C-alpha cells in the first residue's frame, strides 16, 4: 500500500526539523542504510565553511564560490561580494543570501557544480519516490522587494540574469518548486515548467509568508494504487488536492526525468534595498534510485 494522505493543522508536527508527514516513510530509512536504493542528503549548515582560499578574499572570481558542508554548494552573487553568501556567526547553522539593492541582481546557491544535475526529477508514471523540504525565512515580504525561488532546476542556470530575470520572473527553464514574484511579496506560488515544449504552471493563493519568520516548504511523490501525485506541504501540513500535481500519465508541462539541482536564489526587486535577504536553516532531499 502506498502513502496515506494526512491533512490537518501544524499542531501535530514539529516546528523546526523535517516534517514527519513528509519524511516518516520506510524507504527514506532504506536510502540511509543502502545507497543502492536511493540518495538522501541533509544540510543544516552547522558543518559548513567557505573554503579558506575564498574566505580570505572579499570578492569571488566571476561571482562564483563554494560552500563546503554536508552538501557541497556552489554559490553565485552578481556583485561578486563574498559577504553576500555568508554563514551566520550569530546563528547556529544558517546560510544567508544577501541582495545588494541593485535592481535584478541575482544571488543564490546550487548543488553540484552548476553544470551537471545530481538529482533526477520525478518521471510521469514511474513509481519511484522523491522528497524535498527546506526551512527558510525572508527578511521582507513587501511587494517589489525580494523575489525568490526555492526548489529543483535544470543545472547551469544560476548566473547573471537567471533563473530570475526582470521583476523576478522565472526564466523558461526546467523547474519544480516555490516562487515569490515581485508583484506579491508575501505570496508563494507552487510552480513547475517543462522548458520550450511546455507552458509554465503556477498554483497561487495557498501559501503566505511573514517577514523574518521561518517557514518549511516541501513536497513528495505520493503513490496510491495506480495514482501518482506530487503533494505539497507547508510547515508539515499537506495542502490538499488543490495543490497536488498528478503525474500518473504524461504531462507536457511537467519536467519529468530531467537532471536537476537544488537551487535557492533571490534577486533585488524594483523597491529592494541593500540587506534584503533570505536565511536558510536547512535543506533535505531524498530520491529512490
What is shown here, in short?
With 289 residues, the chain is mainly beta. It has three helices and 19 strands.
Total number of β-strand segments?
A: 19
Structural class: mainly beta
How many structural domains are formed by the residues?
1
Uncertain segments: 1-8
CATH class: Mainly Beta
Q: How is the biggest beta sheet arranged?
A: 10 strands, antiparallel
Question: Gap between N and C termini, in Å?
Answer: 19 Å
- Order of helix and strand elements from N to C terminus: HHEEHEEEEEEEEEEEEEEEEE
Number of helices: 3
Percent in strands: 35-45%
Question: pLDDT average, as an integer?
Answer: 89
Oligomeric description of these chains:
single chain
From the alpha-carbon coordinates, what is the Rg to the nearest angstrom?
A: 18 Å
CATH architecture: Sandwich
Helix content: under 10%
Shape from CA axes?
Answer: globular
What would the CATH topology be? Jelly Rolls
Describe the protein's architecture and organization.
The protein is mainly beta. The protein has one domain: Jelly Rolls (Sandwich). It is 6% helix and 40% strand. The chain has three helices and 19 strands. A hairpin with a 7-residue loop joins strand 5 and strand 6. It is globular, with a radius of gyration of 18 Å. The N terminus is likely disordered.
Amino acid at each position: 500500500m502506498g502513502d496515506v494522505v494526512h491533512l490537518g493543522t501544524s499542531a501535530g508536527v514539529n516546528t523546526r526539523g523535517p516534517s514527519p508527514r513528509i519524511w516518516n516513510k520506510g524507504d527514506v530509512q532504506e536510502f540511509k542504510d543502502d545507497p543502492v536504493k536511493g540518495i538522501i542528503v541533509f544540510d543544516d549548515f552547522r558543518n559548513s565553511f567557505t573554503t579558506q582560499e575564498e574566505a580570505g578574499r572579499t570578492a569571488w572570481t566571476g561571482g562564483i564560490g563554494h560552500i563546503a558542508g554536508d552538501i557541497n554548494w556552489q554559490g553565485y552573487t552578481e556583485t561578486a561580494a563574498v559577504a553576500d553568501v555568508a554563514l551566520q556567526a550569530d546563528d547556529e547553522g544558517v546560510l544567508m543570501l544577501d541582495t545588494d539593492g541593485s535592481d535584478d541582481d541575482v544571488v543564490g546557491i546550487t548543488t553540484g557544480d552548476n553544470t551537471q544535475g545530481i538529482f533526477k526529477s520525478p518521471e510521469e508514471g514511474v513509481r519511484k519516490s522523491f522528497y524535498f523540504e527546506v526551512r527558510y525565512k525572508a527578511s521582507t515580504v513587501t511587494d517589489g522587494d525580494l523575489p525568490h525561488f526555492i526548489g529543483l532546476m535544470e543545472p547551469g542556470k544560476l548566473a547573471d540574469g537567471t533563473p530570475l530575470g526582470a521583476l523576478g520572473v522565472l526564466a523558461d527553464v526546467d523547474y519544480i518548486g516555490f516562487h515569490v514574484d515581485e508583484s506579491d511579496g508575501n505570496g508563494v506560488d507552487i510552480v513547475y515548467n517543462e522548458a520550450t515544449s511546455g507552458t509554465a504552471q503556477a498554483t497561487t493563493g495557498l501559501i503566505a509568508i511573514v517577514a523574518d519568520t521561518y517557514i518549511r516548504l516541501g513536497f513528495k511523490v505520493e503513490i496510491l494504487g495506480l495514482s501518482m501525485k506530487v503533494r505539497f506541504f507547508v510547515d508539515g501540513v499537506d495542502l490538499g488536492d488543490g495543490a497536488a500535481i498528478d503525474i500518473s500519465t504524461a504531462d507536457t508541462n511537467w519536467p519529468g526525468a530531467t537532471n536537476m539541482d537544488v537551487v535557492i536564489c533571490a534577486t533585488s526587486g524594483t523597491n529592494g534595498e541593500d540587506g534584503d535577504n533570505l536565511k536558510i536553516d536547512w535543506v533535505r532531499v531524498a530520491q529512490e534510485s
